[in-house]
Design goal:
Layout lengths: L1 H22 L4 H12 L24 E4 L9 E4 L3 H12 L4 E4 L10 E5 L2 E5 L3 E7 L2 E9 L7 H15 L6 E8 L5 E7 L3 H7 L5 H11 L5
Parallel strand pairs: 7-8
Antiparallel strand pairs: 1-2, 3-6, 4-5, 6-7, 8-9
Helix pairs in contact: 4-5
Amino acid sequence: MERINAFAEKEFIALYENNKRAISRLHEARKNVYERLTNASVQPISVPWVLPDSIDFSIPDNSMKFAQHLYCSEDGTFETSLNPWENGVVTEELNNGAVCWLRNLDRKKWSLEIPYEVSGVTTSMFPDLVIVRSDAQGYVFDILEPHDPSRKDNYPKAVGLAKFAEKHWDIFGRIQLIRLKKGVDGREHFYRLDMGKTTIRNKVRGITSNEELDRIFDADAVRED
């Protein structure tokens, strides 16, 4: 029986992998059927991140209206609350020609979720921003995480992003951990460590402390303003 189960699971995974792009275009109710099947598998299956036609989103009391969000109301704006780092990164991206952006919320059904480990326990991060750019080959989706370097989860999240980039480099463009710090001109700028680059993620993948991450930031992070 174990051999039959193993064979059936192997065949199911192969069928799913060969047809997952077609599955992603099905309506929600039908996709949920396949989601239950993949979640029942003993072997983890990589499920594509697919955005729905609309999203559930609460509007905070201190919200502001923003332009060029991927989802918007009838007047073309999107209301949410961004901290200064998030707001600054979005502004910089739009100034650099981004098509649109997505505020990625925690633990929504539509959210982009990335695993990382803390003391051997796997948990999830929900990167703050997804940026959509356009190039000669079509649209490019970037994952951007502005993150305060004083937080204890800095290096585990960096390692998680590096491992995610290693596995999904063909789907996403830039996968960046971002810090705001002073440059040589004495002014504050956003410095970006891009796990989409092989040399960067190879350095980050094996670190075990925030101090190691700080040194990599000092040596390899770049500005895009």
